Amino acid sequence: MNFKSLVLTTGVAFTGLVASGSFAPAQATVATFFNSTSTGANQFDSLVTGAGGTVVIDALTGLTAGPSINRGAYSISRINGATLNPDSYGTLNGQVFNINPSSTDVQASRTSGIQFSFNSAINALGFEVGDWGTCCQPSSLYMSFNNGPAIKVGTSTVVGDVQYNGVYEAFTGAIDDTGTFSTVQFWGDGLGELLYGGGRIRYANVAQGSLPPSTDVPEPFTIVGTLVGGFAALRMKKNLKSSTKA
């Protein structure tokens, strides 16, 4: 696996977020997850609990086909309104839903995905995926909170680069501590790719700005510098130049 693939498919990535045309608070962070089902879930749980949140776990079992799956605290539906047909895949820890990406365009393919709608607002969601990255590269997986900007949670560039322990099964998710949200959408843009999502669902609500700054996150997490910190560094550099000239 090359370095680019490693950065996109292992550990936890942190980035600053720009939403609605304005910068988020200095500590506001988006964390994304893509790893094996066990390691990814553990990373998700650790980050949530470290931020003072409580992870709720729901294994999807006993489901029947319909336009919406009611899980009590939340429901699952297709973004395009089509019927959900619960299925199984490999050793994933619960039933899953087939997602056939409809386009290679990020926004056009969104309608082929699934949506989680919560009764009480959350800002952290993770689940299992299977049978992705077996063809049709490059392709990516995305999540969106409250129909906002697409957050890339994983990318496959060559066959096998998202295979863990010899199987095409993984955990993916995202935490956005810039606020709380009632819906989360999930989809892929690999036209022709067969993709399953579901299994064991994890969700939580962490306090705004509670995720650790990217500079404080230990290895082996993958870090992407925050936008807010970058602009602060640029301002400092400019001020130093001005002082030198003076």
Largest β sheet strand count, sense and barrel closure: 7 strands, antiparallel
What is the overall shape? globular
Radius of gyration: 18 Å
- State the separation between the terminal residues, measured CA to CA: 50 Å
The SSE order reads HEEEEHEEEEEEEEEEEH
| Uncertain runs | 1-10, 17-26, 215-246
Helical amount: 10-25%
In percent terms, what proportion of residues is strand? 25-35%
Q: Mean pLDDT, as a whole number?
A: 83
- How many strands appear in the DSSP assignment? 15
Which structural class should the secondary elements be placed in? alpha+beta
Count, helices: 3
Your description of this structure?
Strands 1, 4, 5, 8, 10, 13 and 15 form a seven-stranded antiparallel beta sheet that branches. A six-stranded antiparallel beta sheet has the order 6-7-9-14-11-12. Strands 2-3 form a two-stranded antiparallel sheet. Helices cover 16% and strands 35% of the residues. The N and C termini lie far apart (50 Å). The chain contains three helices and 15 strands. The protein is of the alpha+beta class and 246 residues long. The longest helix is centred in the C-terminal third of the chain and has 19 residues, at 227-245. The chain is globular, with a radius of gyration of 18 Å. The protein has helices at residues 3-9, 37-50, 227-245; strands at residues 12-15, 18-19, 22-23, 30-35, 56-59, 68-70, 74-78, 96-99, 114-122, 124-130, 139-145, 151-156, 169-176, 181-188, 195-204.
